[in-house]
Amino acid sequence: MASEIKPLDQLLKELPPESQAGVRNFVEALLKKRQRKSNGHLRQSWAGALEDYREQFTSLELQKKSLDWRIHI
After folding, report:
1. Phi then psi dihedrals of residue 58, to 5 deg
2. How far is residue 42's CA from residue 23's CA, in Å, rounded to a whole number?
3. Is residue 15 within a helix (H) or strand (E), and if so which, with residue range?
4. Which residue from 36, 68, 65, 38 is spatially nearest to 50, judged by alpha carbons?
5. Which one, of 40, 43, 65, lies nearest residue 52 by Cα?
């Protein structure tokens, strides 16, 4: 037997007030997390960090090395 899928607002009304507050906190946290990810500003504080290796490696070699460093952190 297929169960009825209730709208979210109806389910929320069926919860006790303290659980409703918990749901609100959870949704607000999700929204904040989403806003942080999509703030649109690319940080480039790392720019120039590998400058010392310019003469030792090609850009492709540095890219591969940086991937190795990220995996081992």
Report:
1. -80, 170
2. 31
3. none
4. 65
5. 65
Q: How many whole angstroms separate alpha carbon 72 and alpha carbon 21?
A: 41
- Phi then psi dihedrals of residue 72, to 5 deg: -90, 0
pLDDT values of the chain reduced to their tens digit, one per residue, 73 residues: 567 899 999 999 999 999 999 999 999 999 988 877 665 666 777 778 778 877 888 888 878 888 888 776 5
Provide the token pair at 72. 């081992």
Give the N- to C-terminal CA distance of the chain in Å, as an integer: 50
Q: Which residue has 């949704």 as its token pair? A: 27
